[in-house]
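Repro:
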Amino acid sequence: MPSLADLNTAMIACRRCPRLVAWREQVAQERKAAYATEEYWGRPVPGFGDPAARLLVVGLAPAAHGANRTGRMFTGDRSGDWLYRALHRAGFASQPGSRNRDDGLELGDAYVTATVRCAPPKNRPTAGERDACRPWLEAEMDLLTGIRVVVALGGFAFDQMLRVLGSPGCSIPSPRPRFGHGMVVSAAGPTVIGSYHPSQQNTFTGRLTEEMLDQVFATAAALLYGSERPFGYRTRGE
């Protein structure tokens, strides 16, 4: 059976979606003025975290000048700042921020990934691109055998996770639940919690606050550990 490292090696070489390939590489060549001296990743971005994780955090796709630049999910942009601060407060991350792949951040009992692995124009992958990327997510979940709770950031990720969990071996309620912040869906498999995505569109307008995001991860922690589990970073071997 392949390992996560094997899967990520294959994923990084993926060129299934011509539009996404062209865009991610164009962005990597042209670069943003603030990062003009940096070498962009410009390839599909693998998941990141603890291989023994019980919590899976799923976003939409890499940001053009965030993970498409750094090569690590939710790293180097404001959405990532919000996410990793929340994970740190909830005890899943060793530090409250992530600037690059070598900044020392470690996740304990958590793994961060996305439904689409290449940065899409205007942050909007097509349905065909979503479906072309689905096998990578399914293969990742097959290897992350301990996952018990999934936090889906945004409606796109929430709907895709329910599609994946509707595959043979799992079941979800029918009709399929609609996305909502704080929505909890119990399936014959991992429990899925919906959260607004920590995009600037949501955080700048106050649609998502840090308290709201903290509550989502408090719910996840309660499902995993019970109400008496203390917060605090957990090492992989704990």
